[in-house]
Amino acid sequence: MTARRKMIEAAAFQGEVIAALRAAGNIRSAERLQRCMDVRLARQRNSGWPWTCRSSGCAWCRVSLIRRWWMGLTRWVVDDGAPVSLVVLPLHHPPNGFRGATVRLRRALRDVRDRTTRRSLRWRVVAITGMVGADGTAMVLVRHPHIPRAEVAEILGRRWPEAIIGEVAAVLPNSEFTVEDAVEFARLRRGIEPLRVIVLPQRSSGSPPGQEMGGSSLTGSEPMPVLF
Ligand SMILES: [Zn+2]
User: Fold this and answer.
1) Helices (H) and strands (E) in the chain, counts
2) What is the pLDDT of residues 39-77, one digit of tens each?
3) How far is the CA of 42 from the centre of ligand 1 (A)?
């Protein structure tokens, strides 16, 4: 697809989202998306960095938001050579319920980790992060020092039998949202938060319980990456 064709399609999509926001009385959210679109359509070559609305409901901003956050989350979890697995999970959400589904997934992942920690202390250093894709799948990165991938697959597989677990691959969460989903995100005006999953380790990692080796920067005092 040519750049011009892409621009026309994105503008048509954004127009639908803006119309839906206006119809629902979300004028400020609509104007934010409108301004982002106007700036992009009027942008001349080499005219510098455009103003951006940074809404995950915006046809343009969501793509760069998702890419940058995914890279940031990956760097955060792939911290010091500890094993990390990519888990792809199904996420079913009702209309206007994307964010709620993300929140439930975050809680469920934390509950599975915490419950497993009660039986096996090694799990207290397990950190989980990820993002929910537009195609109804969540891409979750699990950092599991001193725990084999097969064990992670078994534990998560009990809760999510459809989960697929493997190596961290160079893939991005899907960003082709429906107009309905984009309207929900634009109303939230919270950047990437409605799509992001983070479960901090219960304690700092880097050494097995009872053994102090240090050297890890992934600690409870470093809650999450912050990107602008
Ligand atoms: Zn935007």
Assistant:
1) 6, 5
2) 888 876 556 667 789 898 999 999 888 999 899 999 888
3) 14
